[in-house]
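S1.2 Input.
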Amino acid sequence: MATAATITRSDTRRRRAPRPGCLWPSAGSDPDALGCICGHLARLGDRGGREYPDCAMPELAPVEALRRLLRAQVEALRGIPLGRLVTEAAAAQAALDDDALATLLAHRERLVPHLIGQAAELRRLGEDAATRFGRQLRERNQYASWDEAAHASLVGLFTAYYRRLGEVLATAGGVEDLREGLLPVDAGHTARLGRFAQSRSRDVGAEAMADTVASEYSVGLQLEVLRIEPRALGSPILDVGCGPSALLVHHLRNLGLEAFGLERSPTDATYVQVGDWLETDFGLDRWGSIIAHLSFTNHFVLHHRDSETVAARYADAYLRLLRSLQEGGCFCYAPGVPFIEGLLPVDQYGVSRWEILSGPDDAPIEAVRVERRR
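S1.3 Output.
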């Protein structure tokens, strides 16, 4: 029987190994994540909504402390609304405080080479920050578009920022001099991050990229909206956009069904693969049932209205999902996408739909079931 272990992403570079008993890789907690750091990070953490315990700099290797310091700085960006990243106030909020600057100066001889003299280490710092900020951006706005070009662009932004940080640190005469030297560097960096966030949005303008967090819906609501009787589902089952908690996936598995999830946001849930549904290889003739409640097609509808290029990628992914169904398998989803459902060959797919509520201009919003006939 086909299993989710055979599903891959076109980009496997940042995938994690599956945990025992988990057929899909899941984004587990990072053992090297933000942890014990200098006391001054407590204040930085307060600005970012996080708290950090006190510890002395000598307890950590200076380079490791730098890495964690820079991670904390990225984390502090969570406290700034995405639409305000382009402002001077955002730069001040994310800037390192005087205690942090004093710590950098005290270990300057060890740190500067890693910022301006060692390309490999600088690249690692940039990659780490780009991965974390990119993840943060997608967590905070479910409609943010993402691809490898976006990640590469972020790596470039953070690498350039850290290089300038090293250059200013190398010549600073003291804390005040370092603070003054970093003012334009920080302002430029946060403004570029703000413009980057805007470029990932379907809208334009300084307030375009708002924090829009995806909701997780109860199992009962999902089953009701999609008119699903769990034991009537063909196996294996794939929940596309299952949510970080994978509520429906685990409900189905508790019923003894072979269910898996695909989720764009980081999650520790088992039987879930973290990945972009536009890049995932769903296979051929693999799934008995596919479910997508206010996830994949919700984004498809949005991009169909606003971005012809992205909409074409969604159309391709939609057809790949249908081709991944076994004969007799079904794809149950909401909202409907009538602009493509009407183009499906009737000898291959049967489409049934029902209204779940009224949308803009009293246009119905429907749930849909597509069954593969042959």
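S1.4 Remarks. The radius of gyration is 24 Å.
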